[in-house]
Amino acid sequence: MTNERKATLTVEGEQPVDFPILTPTHGNECIDIRALVGKMGYFTYDSGYLSTASCKSTITYIDGDKGELLYRGYPIEQLADQCNFLEVAYLLKNGELPNPSQKTEFEKAIRTHTMVHEQLIRFYQGFRRDAHPMAVMVGVVGALSAFYHEAADFSDAEHRTLSFYRLIAKLPTIIAMAYKYNTGEPFMYPRDDLSYTANFMHMMFGTPCATYQPNPVLVHALDTIFTLHADHEQNASTSTVRLSGSSGANPFACIAAGIACLWGPAHGGANEACLKMLEEIGDVSRVGEYIKRAKDKNDSFKLMGFGHRVYKNFDPRAKLMRKVCNDVLSELGLENDRLFKLAKELERIALEDEYFIEKKLYPNVDFYSGIVQKAIGIPTTMFTCIFALARTAGWVAQWEEMITDPEYKIGRPRQLYIGAARRNVAPLDKRA
Ligand code: SDX
Is 304 in the pocket of ligand 1 (CB under 6 A)? Predict the structure, then answer.
């Protein structure tokens, strides 16, 4: 990984110092500056981490210029087409896709952990019925760290794997319970006879009054949505999970921290914000007005579902999401869905606009996901919960990669201090 090429840093009036260059499998080479402060006494300044690689990773690769996304080397297009979400979760954690017997074993392991402790149900009673489900998730997932003391030695691979099973298996149950608590309907227990995603839909939309049979087209669409959201390199919420985990914190607490970060409208909350934006635009005739606002430096309005820190080309997930959207709307006879037509027209107009072209702003994963989730029957406030359900697979895989890295240290960035210079406290009666 370290090649012979060096980067030489020369500061005026000081001796030049060499730093090794690290060579990746794909993507940008990295200058290893870990010795910088020791050798030269300088920090680097990179707020927002635009030019910073925070870790080495073998899990996900993104090429923003090509619009390419690989999970463990496999293109997202192939995984979405040929695998289901549980196979992808297995891949993210273990580095290889499961063979038939491994797949059967893994599905069985997940099935045995789908229920939550009956005492966890009481946590819901502490929330208002209209609490945002992401607030409920932060609380309830965090509360999982108060259970499972028997498997809390995370230096033990078996305890890490058991925590992975529990998180992948229980997130759907916890999310469905948040939805039922909001609607006032009874919680639905998981069903072992259904697939992972069909079971989630049963817990969301089923009732004790009748046997719920989910529409296989909608199950497949939702399962694909899970795959598209499963991991995405060192995004804000994944970096939050890694930083929390670097202190040795409990993985359930780390995932709760990731959920809290994902909730923000600039990150995972964008799908909810995007649907609200489309509802507000209302009609194609008003698209121009909103494009104008998005370009106005004095207007904080941003086109939700557009733009990305890494993708300066189409987000490959957005293309796949648009196809999923088409399939679901066709299945439900909603081909003329007003919001979908509006979204496609907004995309067309924006992609022809010189501002969006110059700034390389393309639709991202959140642009179509709200429309398809709404069509499936998922309430707008739960869109980010769906994102969190899927991203839990990536978060736990990244957390485990971090704590098993021989170079692992607690994350502790420094700063550029621009506050008051040293001064002395004046006695109270002498203060202005
Ligand atoms: C996700 O990191 C990940 O991988 C995240 C994610 C994942 O899977 O984990 O992909 C999921 O979070 C997708 C992004 C969802 N967010 C949105 O759709 C919200 C709208 N998008 C923007 O807020 C923005 O594009 C970000 C936050 C996504 C990216 O922000 P950056 O990289 O910090 O870019 P920027 O804000 O510096 O924008 C660069 C320029 C700016 O103009 P200038 O200051 O250079 O003049 O582009 C403009 C921005 O004003 N710009 C937009 C815009 N996004 C960026 N202008 C209008 N509308 C937008 N959507």
Answer: yes
